[in-house]
Amino acid sequence: MTDTAAPEPLLAMRGLSKAFAGIHALQGVDLTVRAGEIHGLLGENGAGKSTLMRLLSGVMPPDSGEIIWRGQPVRFASPLAAQAAGIAMIHQELSLVPCTSITDNLWLGQELHRPLGFLRLAEARRRAQALMDDLGAAVDVSRPVEEYPLSVQQMVEVAKALSHEPALLIMDEPTSALTEPEVERLFATIRSLRDRGVAIVYISHKLDEIEALCDRVTVLRDGRLVTEVAVADTTPTELVRLIVGRELGELFPKHQTAPGEELLRVENLVLAAPDRTQRRLVDEVSLTVRAGEIVGLAGLLGSGASELLGSLFGRWGRPTGGRVWLQGREVHTANPTAALASGLALLTNDRKATGLVPPLSVLHNLTLASLAQDATAGFVSRRRELSRARPVAAGLNLRAPSLDAEVNALSGGNQQKVALAKWLLTEPRIMLLDEPTRGVDVGAKAEIYELMNRWAAEGRGLLLITSELPELLALSDRILVMSRGRITAEFSREQATSERVMAAAMEVDTDG
Amino acid sequence: MDESARRPSPLTRVIRFLGDYRGVVALVAVFALGVVVSPRNLRTGEIVFLTSSNQSNVLFEYAEYGLLAVGMTIVILTGGIDLSVGSVLGFSATLFSYLVIALGWSVGPAVLVCLVAGGLAGFLSGTLVSRLRMQPFIATLSMMVAARGAAKLVSGGIKVAHGAQPWYVLQAGPPAVFGWMSAPVAGGWLRPITLIFLLVLAIMAVVVRYTRFGRYLYAIGGNEEAARLSGVRVTQVKTVAYLLCGLTAAVAGICNASHMGYGDPEAGATYELDAIAAVVIGGTSMMGGRGGMVLTLLGTLIIGYVNKILSLMGWQEAPRLLAKGLIIVLAVIIQETRRRRK
User: What is the ipTM of this complex?
Assistant: First the structure.
């Protein structure tokens, strides 16, 4: 309406903040997107990218700050409201119903219908076909989506988002499951959308993609805005520095211990995806862990690090290929029961889904993995359970109203301690720890660091995944970096820096 | 550890106590209701509900449901369900009668064969569920149909009673064990069938509460993947759970045949629903991981008493069924609201 020299940005988010349970996920973040540009959004895991996009797409409201959309301040009450205003989001995970047709998936929730709810099937199909043709996908829209490769399924998601005719399209790591030619096809689609004037916010960990695709990028770190730059004015190396960017103080104590005998040796471990693609989630990985050593595994989402730990523990049966030795003896771990018996412990990265049994008491969760020690002829002795669990709970400084309280009733940090203590009670030689400090407050984090050091000092071997780089750098004796299922770099404690590790995880060549 | 620091007020403690023991509270309430609404004997002024025959009848009449509910509780604790128990009861009842009446077997071997057969049915269901990862509903639905077929196969489609076929060994009268099982003992208050129910319940209560197997039932129901990753042999534990359920159904079948005096291939139809109702009314969660045998005893007694009261009040079957449906809904609503408040 008003005549201004510079073109009004399509979207301006100003000073957005959001906290969860007192922890700031976002603090005063700005994001400006113009019509017809591809805008990259960069940051480590947990930097606040997803939170920012959730605020934009109406999943939740900001605590403070404003969103200006087409020059007007707005507040979207729901994803539907954001969609109606012209903002569509494609999530990292596909949200399709595999066994129904492309047409039905496209119109799911917004079916074309006549009065009384009768579907306009022919019209829906015609328009679905038109949308898919437009994207250059040669498909029969009446076939179930599961019959098509992931790239086509991704196209269906794009078409679904486009069916709302959005002015802004948010894409969260859309290429994580695609092959190289599929990525190329998706990029062509994205570029043609841009040329039609659609603005795109593109979230990715892959800097080569950012370089190839984006006009400008916004970098977030620890919930704060780092900078906004034009891609042409920067280099991948600089971007890595911007993403990592913090100075490491001596936040964490590290007890140096001389590593002892070799506890774990892995050679050429392969794990194929259980679906038709047989994609290699873990691809020819070899590593060793010695007694008293903490080996850090760095990797971004989808790097295969979690899958590596899971397959060592027999979570998905026998690995597809490779050999594993524990304390010099070759093992063929077929299931968690066998892994446990051979002295392994696996702390999974999601204590709610796979770590704890919520309805059980703290005590029963603690002893679950080692209950045989408390039982005679199948009968469990509560006295023995308590006598084993109490000292461990005390050693971890576990704060619970009582050991008989439901584990649900504890705080996140104390739940995590229960999950750790459960494994400690199995007296493992090798601890596979996947994000041991996730969702834990600062105080409990420090305690867990101390514990990990203590366990290493006791002669255990620790294989540690954490997406928090400072944590990884401070705790690890050695760091292995994984990307696309492979180990792409190894650093000694002395060599490792945030930049080097992040560059290896993003597969950026920083030499020279 | 710092319980004394913030002791809840007396009122909240009373409410919490009532909440924790709501099963007992509900049973007492139902019992009190029975005393209040019960008709009185016109001559003696005695409260009919409280007569010893009525009281002992409740347990006796509900013993078979109770037995099924005990096995059902084990399966439901793992997050599963067993729809086949009614049919397995019918199968076991006909098989037992056939062995004892038609073939003239002695009781011991006949009981053994029935238990093996019931256990086998449960084992098959359990294998389908745990090893082949079939949904419990579907797997046990198939077993429900198949076991009913087996019952009809054994009996030849008729009620297996003395003299029902000219070639049956027993022609003159029912086997002694039938009369003995239902005859009052212990001063007329209890009968062997009731005692069998209480004994099986007590054994399973101990198994569920004090053994590793029992602990694993809860763990699997609470979070199967976490249990598996903690080294619990989920497949085996689940299979044994269904096996035990089949076993209790077989025991219930033997009781049913003794009680009726013959083996009815149609016996136990829809009993699985009463068994599930008893478990749910007791407060065991259908999602698994929460509940127990004592709750199931309470649930069985509550349904039994409600039925008894309504029939004493002269209600017909139709309104009784409607009332039963309502009670189940109320029980679940109370459970859910309590959970959400947490």
Answer: 0.86
